[in-house]
Amino acid sequence: MADFNFVESTFMVPYTKEVADYCDPFSCGDEDLDEFFSHDVFLYEEELLGKTYCWINRNNDNEIVAIATLSYDGIKTNNLDNPSRNAFQRKIPQQKRHRSYPAVLIGRLGVNNSFQRHGFNVGTQLMNALKYWFVDENNKAACRYILVDAYNTESTIHYYVKNGFKPLYKTEQSEKSAFGISAEEPLKSRVMFFDLKLITD
Questions:
Q1: For the chain, N or C: smaller number of CB within 10 Å?
Q2: Averaged over 9-36, what is the pLDDT?
Q3: 3 state DSSP class of 129
Q4: CA–CA distances in Å: residue 151 to residues 15, 108, 111, 187
Q5: Which neighbouring-strand residues pair with 11?
């Protein structure tokens, strides 16, 4: 199973209460994420704050392999300090630069404990599937970037960097300043982005 092919071995459906009741309980090993996907996710959907999808194992339709909550967002450059703004806009032609750029936010994302490690690489396969889904010609609205508000832990930041994401703010201090967090407080999460032009070019 080390050569598990995420795209071929799963199918995607909206994550509804009916799906949750039918499938085995989902756990990715993170208590906060597991709690969100068990309870809060449906309130988010009722309030139109996020749409959640899950990928189910074709060989066992009771098993959720991965799950993600998505919503529309944007990157507003006037919220960035000069070094961060300059780095962010470096690859955008001068005449195409705006004060705001369309993005999609991955609010929550989890991979089933059973598919973590062991050479499955499901996390990266899931992220690749999402990237290409967001640039599909049938999408109702365009987005240039994927945004995540990533836990500021070594393993989480490493995962997103490995998958081509960069911090939106050049330094943790500039991110703290932008969000009104004092220099003494720990930065619990970091805003990171992926430029979808990297795969469309």
A1: C
A2: 95
A3: helix
A4: 23, 11, 15, 9
A5: 56
Residue 116: exposure state from Cβ atoms within 10 A (0-12, 13-18, ≥19): middle
Q: The pTM is what? A: 0.91
Beta carbons of 71 and 50 less than 8 angstroms apart? yes
Amino acid at position 160, single letter? Y
- Across the chain, how many H-helices and E-strands are there? 9, 7
Q: In Å, how far from its chain's centre is CA 32?
A: 16
Residue indicated by tokens 């996907």:
37
- Of 51-60, 97-106, 113-122, 181-190, the range with the lowest mean pLDDT is 113-122
* Token representation of residue 69: 């909550």
The rounded distance, in Å, linking the Cα atoms of 51 and 81 is: 31
The beta-carbon contacts of 185-189 under 8 Å, at least 24 apart in sequence, are: 186/152, 187/152, 188/151, 188/152, 189/149, 189/150, 189/151, 189/152
